[in-house]
Amino acid sequence: MSIDLLFLIFTFCLLLAGYPVALTLGGASIVMAVIVWAGGQFDGALFHAIPSRIFGVLTNPILVSIPLFVVMGYLLEKSNLAADMLGAAARLFQRSRAGLCISVTIVGTLLAASTGIVGASVVTLGLFALPSLLARGVAPHVAAGTVAASGTLGQIIPPSIVLIVLGDQISNAWQKSQLDSGNFAPDTVTVTDLFLGAILPGLLLVGLYCAYFLLFHRGTTDADLAEIEDEAVAQDVTRSTGLVLVLPLLLIIAVLGSILAGIAAPSEAAAIGAFGALLIAGRRLSWGKLNEVVQESAHLTAMIMLIVVGASLFSLTFRGLGGEETIASFLNSLPGGTLSALVLVMGLIFLLGFFLEFLEITYVVVPLVAPVLLAMPMADGSAMSPVWLGILIALNLQTSFLTPPFGVSLFYLRSVAPESLTTPQIYRGVAPFVVLQLLALGIVVAFPQLATFLPRAVFGQ
Question: What is the value of pTM for the model shown?
Answer without folding.
Answer: 0.85
